[in-house]
Amino acid sequence: MKRPKISLIGAGQIGGVQAQLIAQRKLGDVVLFDVVEGVPQGKALDICHALSGWGSDVRVTGTNDYKDTAGSDLYIVTAGVPRKPGMSRDDLLSVNLGIIKTVAAGIKQHSPNAVVIVVSNPLDVMVLAMKQLTGFPAARVFGQAGVLDSSRFRFFVAEHLGVSVRDVHAVVLGGHGDTMVPLPRYCSVGGVPLRKLVDEATIAKISKRTQDAGGEVVALLKTGSAFVSPAEASLEMAEAVLHDQKRVLPCAAYLEGEYGHKGIYVGVPVVIGSNGVEKVLELELDAGEKALLDKSVAAVNALVAAAKL
Fold it and tell me: Which positions of the chain have pLDDT values less than 50?
């Protein structure tokens, strides 16, 4: 059976980990692309030297030419400048938008039927730009945000309670930034509502730490941003596409009236299968939750306006 072809645009920290995870999980053949000569080739070769240890026969190649990505089933885009201490995701807007324009042109030319997952920041604007520049249907262009944000929320809850993170279920809505909206009311631990186990003050601290989690990693690393957790989060989404899993995951999806918003990408729970985002799921939000989501959407809209999309 022919293996899927997965092209990773950006061979930096995230792209390198993504390539490794794909090879380990045998999800498909990998093309690792970057504009820096030698970097994608070197990382690909290094991964190939480990294939025997993983019992994996997938092909991993590195390239500086978009034509080598031709016929890809799936693209995961991490290309762009990472955050540094003191920077917000939004500070990356102009430089990363220019990069996304080049990436979108390469994808559109060589793989017009591909599904595209965007990871580059500021995420919600970059994924909208990708959709507009490729002209692809919204279902085939979406962004990694909520899976990572929810994973962070789940970890902080599990850490506080001293339980397995596997038994914590949570969802985070909104833009992938400081205005993201953790939803404690929809968080449970082994089926028990979070509010039955944790007081409101602690929940507020966990929610705030979730919002600031990316910046916390940046401040500690000092020379870059998170890369293992974004790689893993994007691979959850990729696997749902490649294996048609119909997973319910929170992603930056294009809204067409859901949650009272239209024509914008924002984090919401969706069903992901072989066709990409196959359905947007609408949660019932109380007045306070809806106000927070509206505030987050307003922040995204301000960035879209600044980007002149």
Answer: none
